[in-house]
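Structure in, sequence out. Go:
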């Protein structure tokens, strides 16, 4: 199997494809907004069609991906099927992101084109992930006063944020930051949206549909799933003139019903988020959509699933509602290579790349992912951050317990971090940006730094890899 081949080889040699291609699908990545094409080997048409459906693409049996200019191709395995995803384009500044996504999330082999030769260091030099900001403004003309001091409306400007009930998120904080925190591109709605729905003649049903619309508008969904979306809504549309529920695909309904956990998106507690809550580590089976009434929201989506003849048991094995964010949250780190770790003299080494965030954690800590609740896991021992306008640092600029110039110490809040104990294992997590790891591996404290780099790595593939289909693409869009 492709994944096994990759994990067995430090050099991560290009895998041997099994047989002739059986077909392909072309689409616009829902994360990056860039054109991509998946070509399948060792699969039957039904398997390939299922994989294509995950990106709302139409599978074409017997048709190969077109020969076009590309950044490269990612060779990986999906559900036992060999896939080669070609990332179209010629923008060399996207090479590192694509390599990162392919190797890190798809566990694949990245074959760069000539456009990407020597351009795959993992670094985010500009436009980093915007950290949450509490924005407080006066209520819009014609709307009631806000519930915060001075009658203002206060909203966290982040994907997991929500403004006050009955208002539109986009009116109070805008959408620019949110669209940089998550990938956005327009995606057509479910085909059911084109059909007449007799339920819309029932005033009671319409009341529930309109309530869901209002809840979606109050959360950051308003930015990408409504008329506020700059290039059209992504799948479901809170401003759809017919039955909003029919714009959702079945899996989206299951996420809304809480049948598929979506912890990886991150969330605020309701008391800090204008009364809105969503799936969290404490309550993973809440709705994916922030709401002031979980029971009502879940009941609506459960009713839609029943209307389509779907049952909760059908989604029992679907445990990754947040996609690439869940992949990162559930990643199991391996031992550090000789080129990674924190050594006896306090010096650091990590894979090729420059960091905005550096963590040292207990070995059994959860992976750091997104703010506000998943970026400082229990077990964090030391974390240093780079301001948005700072210059990313290389490993030789960092020494344990000493905050590098231009960075700030995020944990502990004050004082020096706990000393590392010789012979004890710890988790090194270094990222070029939020959910953009360079190195994430287990090292043993007290070892001497090797004199020469070995060239191998522990990241689960070659060095770090794909912006194309799966997960790193979520960060890729905001680096365009």
């Amino acid at each position: 199997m492709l994944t096994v081949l990759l994990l067995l080889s430090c050099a991560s040699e290009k895998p041997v494809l099994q047989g002739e291609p059986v077909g392909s699908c072309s689409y616009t990545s829902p994360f990056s907004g860039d054109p991509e094409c998946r070509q399948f080997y060792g699969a039957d048409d039904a398997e390939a069609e299922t994989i294509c459906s995950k990106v709302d693409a139409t599978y074409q049996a017997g048709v190969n991906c077109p020969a076009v200019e590309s950044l490269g191709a990612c060779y990986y395995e999906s559900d036992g099927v060999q896939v080669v995803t070609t990332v179209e384009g010629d923008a060399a500044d996207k090479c590192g992101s694509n390599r990162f996504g392919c190797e890190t999330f798809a566990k694949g082999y990245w074959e760069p084109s000539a456009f990407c030769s020597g351009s795959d260091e993992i670094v985010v030099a500009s436009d980093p992930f915007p950290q949450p900001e509490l924005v407080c403004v006066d209520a819009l003309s014609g709307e009631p006063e806000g519930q915060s001091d001075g009658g203002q409306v206060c909203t966290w400007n982040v994907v997991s944020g929500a403004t006050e009930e009955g208002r539109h998120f986009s009116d109070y904080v805008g959408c620019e930051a949110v669209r940089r925190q998550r990938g956005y591109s327009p995606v057509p709605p479910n085909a059911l949206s084109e059909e007449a729905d007799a339920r819309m003649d029932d005033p009671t049903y319409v009341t529930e549909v309109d309530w869901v619309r209002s809840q979606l508008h109050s959360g950051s969904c308003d930015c990408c799933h409504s008329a506020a979306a700059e290039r059209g809504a992504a799948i479901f549309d809170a401003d759809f003139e017919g039955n909003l529920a029919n714009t959702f695909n079945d899996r989206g309904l299951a996420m809304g019903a809480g049948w598929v956990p979506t912890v990886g998106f991150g969330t605020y507690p309701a008391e800090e988020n204008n009364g809105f809550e969503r799936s969290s580590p404490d309550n993973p089976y809440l709705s994916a959509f922030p709401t002031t009434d979980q029971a009502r929201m879940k009941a609506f989506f459960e009713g839609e699933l029943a209307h389509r003849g779907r049952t909760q048991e059908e989604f029992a094995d679907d445990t990754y509602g947040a996609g690439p964010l869940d992949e990162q949250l559930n990643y199991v780190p391996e031992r550090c290579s000789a080129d990674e770790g924190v050594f006896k003299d306090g010096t650091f080494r990590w894979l090729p790349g420059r960091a905005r965030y550096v963590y040292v954690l207990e070995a059994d800590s959860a992976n750091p992912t997104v703010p506000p609740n998943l970026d400082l896991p229990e077990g964090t021992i030391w974390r240093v951050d780079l301001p948005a306008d700072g210059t990313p640092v290389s490993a030789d600029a960092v020494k344990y317990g000493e905050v590098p110039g231009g960075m700030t110490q995020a944990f502990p809040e004050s004082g020096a971090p706990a000393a590392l104990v010789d012979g004890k294992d710890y988790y090194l997590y270094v990222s070029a940006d939020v959910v953009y790891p360079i190195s994430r591996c287990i090292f043993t404290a007290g070892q001497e730094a090797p004199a020469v780099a070995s060239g191998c790595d522990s990241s689960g593939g070659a060095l770090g890899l794909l912006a194309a289909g799966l997960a790193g693409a979520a960060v890729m869009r905001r680096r365009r």
